[in-house]
Structures are given as C-alpha cells and as structure tokens.
Amino acid sequence: MRLGVTNQKGGAGKTTTTLNVAGALNQRGHDVLVIDLDPQGHATEGLGFEDLYDDPDRDSLFDVLPDLDRMGDLEQLAVEHQEVDVVPSHERMINAEDELANVMKREERLDMLFNESDADQRWDYILVDCPPNLGVLTDNAIVATGNVLIPAQAKSTSIRAIELLFKQLRSIESAFGDVDEVGLVANEVGVDGEAEEMMEWFKDIFEDRENCEVFEIRKRVALQRAWNAGVSIFEHEEDCDMEEVYLDVAEHLEDYADD
C-alpha cells in the first residue's frame, strides 16, 4: 500500500504521524519505506539522518524526479534505519518544484519512479511525508499513492485547511483518478472545549467516508523524546500509551489494504 501523509497547514503533525505509523507497521512485521518529500527535511531529521540532508555528494529526489532516465533509481536513494528504509530529503529539494515546473508529466514523476523501480514488490508499505503546501511535490505524492492520511490539530484553524485539501484532492481526482481519504489523525488533542468540538467535527466529516477512521493522539513528552532519539515511539526507551493508537492506525491500514 502507498500512503501520502498530507496537510498543507504547518504544525499539523505530519512528520510525527508518518514516523510513528511507519514504526507501528514495522512492529506488525511489515517492510516499510518512508519518503521524505518535504524540502525542510523534518522526517530526515526525525530519523537521525541530518548529515545526509546537506551532503553535497549525495543524490536525492531532486536529482532523480526530473530525469526520465533515472526512474529506476529508487533503491539507490534509500538508506537503512533500524525500523524502516528511508529516502531522505536534501537541501537541494528547496528548488525541486522549480525543476519540475516545465517537465512532461510533472505530477506523475513519483508514480513513475515507484512503478519503474518495482517499489511495491520491495516494500509492503510506502509512506510519503509531504511538504506543508499544495504544490507540485504534494501533487506527486497524492497521484503516486492514491491514498491520503490527514494529520490535523484539534483546533478550529484546521477546518479551512482541510476544506482546501479536499478541493485539491477532488481536482487531482478529476485529472488522475480516485484518491481515498483513509483516515485522520488528530494530534496533541487537549482537554478543552475547542478540542472536543473539533473531534466531533472530524468524526462528522470523516467517519461517513468509506473505510475512513479518526484517531486521537494526546500530547505526550515521550513522542518528542523519541523524535530527538531518531526513532519512533516503539523503539524509544520510554513506554507511552499512544503506542496503542498508532498500532490501531497500522491495523486500519492493513484492513484497508486487504479490501
């Protein structure tokens, strides 16, 4: 299964969601690839590969996506982490959207890379951590995966961002085929009235959609400490009750993939 983790609103918890869902899938015995498509490289940092982000001698998606002759080079970009395989971001990715602006099939390059590299045979799950915008890179992730998991804060400011994301998804569907929202992960959910109202709104919007569920992640210091250690919460030394929620997300993805 391929999955884009996307929300153009900053601070929604995209990377925390990506890394911990990937860790949960690994715990359940799956081979997982994490693609850091964000030019800021948060997933690259969160998995402990900061040194690769600014390595001038390392090829990245910046070098491969615009080049049709390199559509089979996905495995050459991947590095091993103790839990998952990773395609790190790179500081040159800041210019990736400009590089893709005038190429043929610019929104389909990541899909072509997956297909020509036989990625679906190498990994059980591919998770793409998207940039915090609705540009060409995010379009590539959505087209390539056809499935999106949406992280969001349980705050009213999330409503407009999700409405805009839905418009973008429907636009992509009209040009490239179906896109399924497989779930929403509400991050750092507090105990205030606004959070309660937003959780109700999330459930009203998402749980009527076929095979779509809403998951609630409470704020836990252990999640940040796991990030600082370069691992998911499952490989971190502290126990955390949110592990069960991420395992629930992984099980939901397994059920969705089986359908």
Automatic annotation (TrEMBL):
Which InterPro entries does the UniProt entry name for this protein? AAA_dom (IPR025669), DNA_Partitioning_ATPase (IPR050678), P-loop_NTPase (IPR027417)
Report the domain of life of the source organism.
Answer: Archaea
AAA domain boundaries: 5-174
One Pfam family cited in the UniProt record for this chain = AAA_31
Where are the bilayer-spanning segments?
none
Protein name (database record): Chromosome partitioning protein
Q: Which organism is it from?
A: Halorubrum alkaliphilum
